[in-house]
Design a protein that fits this description.
Blueprint (H helix, E strand, L loop, with lengths): L6 H22 L6 H4 E5 L4 E4 L4 E6 L5 E5 L2 E12 L8 E8 L10 E7 L8 E7 L10 E3 L10 E7 L3 E6 L2 E7 L14 E8 L19 E15 L10 H7 L6 H14 E4 L18 H10 L1 H5 L13 H7 L3
Antiparallel strand pairs: 1-4, 2-3, 3-14, 4-13, 5-10, 5-14, 6-7, 6-13, 7-8, 8-9, 9-15, 10-11, 11-12
């Protein structure tokens, strides 16, 4: 049968469905734990509330404080995941984060792997930002930002991090959206020291929404982020000796080994449709892409059209620029 007449929209949604259905085996093979089995409260007092016998946790932000939790153990590599439902309505300035860090142990040379969810004004969409730091390399930004094909405040969606000694992969609903392969020239910029898992909600008014133009409005508080389906499948490390307390072979056999050919097609399709910023293409920031960047011409062309000043070295036009809303994204992936 000839498929070409069905168009790219049909092919995109079919390939997404194929990936999700194929990845369910991978997801269910990893143990889901309750909050108390793997995490402890970090801050926020009664702004952290547990439900369903500890299988779901609500983090809230109000005028008093935000809230957060952290893993009980440090980990050196593994697969880490949670299903998250973000706050709805006006959420400008709100930041929800699900990330790995060792900043409490290595203040001047910490490592970090981030999912950050940046709040929105009405009529706009939540944005996701991913980032990595290694050995305190905060001066070398490796940020990427994306829109999504769904509203992350409508229901739970799974966000996952795969971290090995040679690569980092970010997933949304088991679809890989970003892959960072370690290169020799990265040196210590690649995260390599044991880290804890964190989840937080906090006031990022100074930068989170349109560079700080829109701030948190506490008349809409409390802002509540919900977390469930916790997966902490990694190699736990002794915090004093920093020596692994696990069988590396057993851990590695249970987690993904990388992006499969089918997943790579899906990742490239996602990235060409939903990436709104990538440091790899930021010509205003880097004269040449950092060594770990793999340049994709479709991504480059889309970003250049999206922001010709940042990504193409062009001049900014002062007329209105058309921004696609989530509704138009939805049309692009539905039949």
């Amino acid at each position: 049968m000839a498929w070409s007449h069905l168009g790219p929209c049909f092919l995109f949604i079919c390939s997404l469905l194929a990936l999700v259905s194929g990845s369910q085996i991978q997801r269910t093979s990893l143990p889901i734990i309750s909050f108390d089995e793997g995490y402890t409260q970090l801050f926020g007092d009664d702004n952290l509330v547990m439900y369903r016998d500890g299988k779901t946790v609500h983090l809230s932000l109000d005028e008093r404080t935000g809230s957060g939790f952290a893993s009980q153990d440090l980990y050196l590599h593994g697969y880490f995941s949670a299903s998250i439902k973000l706050p709805a309505d006006y959420t400008a300035g709100v930041v929800v984060a699900f990330y790995m860090s060792n900043g409490d142990m290595f203040e001047k040379n910490h490592d970090e792997i981030d999912f950050e969810f940046l709040g929105k004004i009405r009529g706009k969409d939540w944005r996701i930002q991913t980032n990595i730091y290694g050995n305190g390399s905060t001066s070398v930004g490796r940020e990427e930002r994306y829109s999504l094909w769904f509203d992350p405040s409508d229901d739970f969606h799974q966000y996952s991090i795969l971290w090995t000694n040679s690569q980092i992969i970010f997933y949304v609903d088991n679809i890989p959206i970003r892959e960072v392969k370690r290169t020799e020239s990265m040196g210590g910029d690649f995260p390599s020291k044991p880290m804890s898992l964190y989840a937080t909600i906090w006031d990022g008014s100074d930068w989170a929404t349109n560079g700080g133009k829109y701030r948190v409005n506490y008349k809409y508080a409390p802002y509540v982020a919900e977390f469930s389906d916790f997966v902490l499948h990694g190699c736990a490390v002794d915090p004093i000796e920093q020596f692994p307390r696990c069988d590396h072979t057993e851990i590695s056999q249970a987690i993904p080994t990388g992006v499969t050919p089918v997943q790579r097609i899906q990742m490239e399709s996602f990235r060409t449709k939903f990436t709104t910023y990538s440091y790899c293409y930021d010509r205003a920031r880097y004269k040449a892409p950092p060594s770990e960047c793999v340049i994709n011409t479709k991504e480059a062309d889309r970003l250049k059209n999206y922001d010709p000043v940042t990504f193409g070295g062009g001049r900014r036009h002062h007329g209105k620029r058309h921004h696609r809303s989530r509704s138009s994204h939805a049309e692009a992936i539905t039949i």
